[in-house]
Amino acid sequence: MERSVNADPFQRSDSSDRWTWWRNWLGFWFLGLCNNFGYVVMLSAAHDILRKQESGNSTLTASATLAVDFQVRNNSNASRYDCNPVSTAAVLLADILPSLSVKLAAPFVIHAVPYGFRVMICVVMTATSFLLVAFSSAVWMSILGVIFASFSSGLGELSFLALSTFFSRDVLGGWGSGTGGAGVAGALLYSALTQAGLSPRITLLTMLVVPFSMILSYFCLLVFPTRLSHWKPSMNDCLVSCSEERERLIEGADEGREEEQEKPEAVTPEPLSLTEKRDIIRSLLKFMFPLGLVYFAEYFINQGLMELLYFPNFFLSHAEQYRWYQTLYQLGVLVSRSSLCCVKIRKLWLLALLQILNAVLLLFAVGYQFLPSAWLVFVIILYEGLLGGAAYVNTFFFISKEAKDRQREFSMSTASVGDSFGIALAALVAFPVHRYFCSL
């Protein structure tokens, strides 16, 4: 089996090296958890955010209620779908467009910002988002808080995926599992705490511990290569130099080893040029397109259809049904993003096709209401999460495996735009779909 230079830089025969491996794996698990936690909570709270503003913003100024006034002529209780005046896709747009903007622009300039500073920016942004949404008195304040969470999530994702190239490739399994864990923890905690009687405001305030946990995970848990600095910009030559050193350790070739060690350091390569970056992006399209399709289909379901899959005679209220849809989706994501050590799926287009079929099925289910119970929807939503999580973790695993050493850091950060683009497109499509069904 082919073995990449960053496949296993730490020899696990020694107990200290095994401990280092586990610290790094757990460190990326917690970073994934903390990075995606706020994003998930905002989507889980979307229904409550809009309900709160719908009932409490009747005296706001026109500028503060622009989003509500756009559709206020639709009485939310007049529709058989029990719609909010504003689709939860509005929250999704605010939750993804800043992230998409960061992912489109940052890979070309982010190398000038040290990883330590990026982590601190993410922490401040996430904490601010929780405070803004918790104490919001208008839709625009809630949306602004969601925007802060989105910016933090996007910056964190591209930064930590790039950072993973300095460690064993196994940390991608920790990262993927952690992001899946964020989905379950965020959706489940929000659903459980609010259903237990806590207000959405108190629930959000208790979650302020999460962004500060990111500081501990990054600065205290990870064991960094000596060449990588928290406060100095990351350069390609550092990555290549580290990769070359790891390759010598992994191959363990006896012949000429002394001669190789006596040789001076390899000439420092030039940073990637714009032409090289363009060529790398082209080579990544085979990964980014299917990933984007998977996420377009699943977030069209999550924010365009989930709110409309309402069963009035079920023992859960509409808001509770929506929360548990989100929770089961995130449970599926957790399971599949944690499966990298057991199964690897190279046929990403197959996952995209299956997810699109899911979206078509649920779209017809909303229109014709032929599904007999929410229990069946629960199963479909869980399956949807399994497909989405598998597409994400396998995409970045194979990018890491196939990218050249010098290109790996840029490739990992750039490819993350694929899922964000699909999510943004899903939100734009969800708006007219929501308005059409709510007018029935």
Automatic annotation (TrEMBL):
The chain crosses the membrane at residues 26-46, 171-190, 202-224, 280-301, 348-368, 374-399, 420-437. Pfam families: CLN3. It is found in: Endomembrane system; Lysosome membrane. The keyword S-adenosyl-L-methionine does not apply. InterPro entries: Battenin_disease_Cln3, Battenin_disease_Cln3_subgr, MFS_trans_sf. It is a multi-pass membrane protein. This is Battenin. The gene is cln3.
